[in-house]
Amino acid sequence: MIKLLDKLTEQFEKVMAECGYDTKFAKVTVSNRPDLCEYQCNGAMALAKAHKKAPIMIANELVEKLSGNEIFSEIVAVNPGFINMKISDSFLASYIDEMASDDNTGCEKNVKPKTVVIDYGGPNVAKPLHVGHLRSAIIGETLKRLYRFKGDNVIGDVHLGDWGLQMGLIIEQLKIEQPELVYFDDTYTGEYPAEPPFTLAELEKIYPAASARSKVDEEFKDKAQTATLELQKGKPAYTALWKHIMTVSVADLKNNYKNLNVDFDLWKGESDAKPYIDAMVDDMIDRGLAHESQGAMVVDVAEETDSKEIPPCIIRKSDGAALYATSDLATIIQRVQDFMPDEIIYLADKRQEMHFTQVFRTAKKAGIVDDSIKLIYQGFGTMNGKDNKPFKTRDGGVMRLETLLNDVNNAVYDKIMENREESEENARATAKIVGLAAVKYGDLSNQTSKDYIFDTERFASFEGNTGPYILYTIVRIKSILEKYAEAFGDYNQITTGVNKKMTPSEKNLMMELSKFNAVIDSAYEELAPYKICGYIYDLSNAFNSFYHDNKIMAEEDKDKQKGFIKLLMVTKTALEKSIDILGFTAPDRM
Ligand code: ARG
Question: Among 64, 143, 212, 381, whose CB has the most other CB atoms within 10 angstroms?
Fold first, then answer.
């Protein structure tokens, strides 16, 4: 469906062409003086210069030509040459009706769908999920849903950090704790046990212990590095242990992501790139792209136009080990081979920008990707605590994701119990749904690259620019619809559209609603979920004023009441589709 502003612009293009003016000045925008008008076109000001006429003359000329147009209820030229307009109720109503009957609520799918790999989540196996990984999961999931909403073919890949030093650390720590395990007996030649030698709870303690030890014990750290290398080279005992670590840890991760309403099409990891690494590095050496530097193999990626230094990309360490960049490069080879994507989007902390610059440049230089494949790095800011420092537990440790979610759910639970009598069980179930919305909306409503302050109290509030407020609005609409159905019958049977004569708050609600396709498209083009949050906040506010100003259930004019109900239904659809893209849902009551 054509966007409302484009439709208005079209009207100006037509008359400007008739007058022999350049139609590039036809652009209509939402008014920045809502007290005077709803929309405006300032093109006459620019045209005046080119045509050496007074702007007001041109404005008058255009207004005269548009005066019979049914789209406008008012269109006036004002000094020095602005054109102010209001749109007619009947045009707006028909626009909303068209949205209502469209499967994608007026938002057009891409004519040529793209194939896109989104690399997000990025948890490190065997390390607890912490708040740093929360942003990647939340934003990546939203982009995946947004792209799908636009019709693209999207593959979401969790890209596990399963190949790094933490594996060697765990192996060496385990060797200290349980030296009798067969994995550490170099004379052992039998099959390795099918059962992991640790539980999840035990595994979760091993990594922190190992990491702490490596900071004070150089020898231990060296051993861990060697073990990592041996694992990467395929030592059977360590490969068997690694598989156990993976099984135990991935099961837990899946559970965690499920609670976040985040799901991945692929559960691949850095280790899956292994088969491509040797050939890739050798090839870069053979072709003279990589050269030796202090024992390591590096690719120069600095460009003349760089304003800051971009160091070479290290693709093989002096001991032969693969690095983060190596596995990212090899993963691109794999993704190109498997999916031939048009785009690969990476979600990672903005402090990883240098890494991605190096990887992308190396990939281009080595011909791993050509110009038809876009590599996009979407860096995100840090989630801070109220002290504006990276989020920590009270005792200064790394905040586990579960703890954070529990805190939010408890805050929401208290609010629910404050408002009304509710069974503990119901309130807990609702708190889980609302809590997730609080966390996700709190995150997504900020521009992705900015840091933000995680404030449990504010995020969990039922008022203001919060997830719970949006859900509260949806729940309110659902409850009115339910009441209507009880009193007057199934609202799905209403065949008439929204009202063609409307009250001011009703019109305002329709005007907000009509922005849906424009907002989704611009969020999509700019990878900007915060725009969707802004839209549903404005829409919720517009709905709540409408609700406040109009008696819906008590309305005596039954046709008018049907029009209200129809408007509620479209509003609900736009809100629900939006929150679905944002990755959360609304409860039936709250
Ligand atoms: N595992 C990484 C981390 O915890 C994030 C991975 C991002 N994706 C990538 N392909 N490098 O920082």
Answer: 143
